[in-house]
Design brief:
The structure is a single chain. The chain is mostly helical. It has two domains: about 90 residues, Winged helix-like DNA-binding domain superfamily/Winged helix DNA-binding domain (Arc Repressor Mutant, subunit A); about 140 residues, GntR ligand-binding domain-like (Four Helix Bundle (Hemerythrin (Met), subunit A), Up-down Bundle), CATH 1.20.120.530. Helices cover about 70% and strands about 5% of the residues. Strands 1-3-2 form a three-stranded antiparallel sheet. α6 packs antiparallel against α10 and α9 crosses α11. The longest helix has 28 residues. The N and C termini lie far apart (about 70 Å).
């Protein structure tokens, strides 16, 4: 009983609980806003209002404000002084540059995983791809797209390189609008994309770094071409694949 009384009357303890609750709420709010962007419910250029988001999610403005800051750091939102908070809008030129950087990072990921992947990790990747295949068969972009994001994020997590993961997440967040539009742009895109993901897993499982690197590069290049078609861009510039240096 004395211990309970000590906790109840300890102001430091109350402060700690409040901080934990606030941080948990901030994380939940951040995840929900990111989900709304990923699913297309929030579009590039949309303005977000603290009061509206707080009311919709049933929280106070504090966690929403912190979530806005965190999402701005990841590249999903843009904060403009005296104007407000907006879903980040990336130009086609910026998207081109991001695709090029992503291709280089994915090649690195492929080479690394071909050397270190474990059987249980391959199994996890195949489970995700199976889910993608089912969503593709139904032409369900809303189900497919989150699995697509999860697949690639999981690949980078499996490298064990935290800096690579942070960098990767930052740039792919900026591509959300274009990646989703590209997948939804033409009938059959989801099935083609699923085959590309299967090829990636098979290449990594082969233990051949060159094959895995090539599979990931080709997938990013194909994704960029889908983006071009979705936005009516002709004669896309090819992404140059990094080649293994001779020693």
């Amino acid at each position: 009983m004395s211990n309970m009384n000590a906790i109840q009357h300890n102001p430091t303890h109350h402060t700690t609980i409040q901080l934990l609750q606030s941080h948990s709420l901030t994380t939940l709010v951040q995840q929900e806003i990111a989900r709304l962007i990923e699913t297309g419910e929030l579009s590039a250029g949309d303005k977000l209002n603290e009061w509206s988001v707080a009311e919709r999610l049933g929280v106070s403005r504090g966690p929403v404000r912190e979530a806005f800051r965190a999402l701005a750091e990841t590249g999903l939102l843009r904060m403009e002084k005296n104007r407000g908070v907006f879903v980040r809008q990336v130009s086609i030129k910026e998207a081109e540059e991001i695709y090029e950087v992503r291709a280089a990072l994915d090649q690195l990921v492929g080479r690394r995983l071909a050397e270190i992947i474990r059987p249980e990790q391959l199994k996890e990747l195949r489970v995700i791809v199976n889910g993608m295949e089912k969503a593709a068969a139904k032409q369900d972009v809303d189900a497919y797209y989150p699995l697509n994001l999860r697949f690639h994020d999981t690949l980078v997590q499996f490298t064990g390189n935290s800096k690579l993961l942070t960098t990767y997440r930052r740039i792919v967040n900026e591509l959300n609008l274009y990646r989703r539009d590209a997948l939804a742009g033409e009938k059959g895109n989801l099935l083609v994309s699923t085959r590309e993901h299967k090829k990636i897993v098979d290449a990594i499982a082969s233990g051949d770094p060159d094959r895995a690197s090539r599979a990931l590069h080709d997938h990013v290049a194909a994704g960029r071409e889908r983006m071009h078609r979705a936005h009516g861009i002709r004669e896309p510039v090819q992404i140059t694949r990094a080649r293994k240096k001779s020693t």
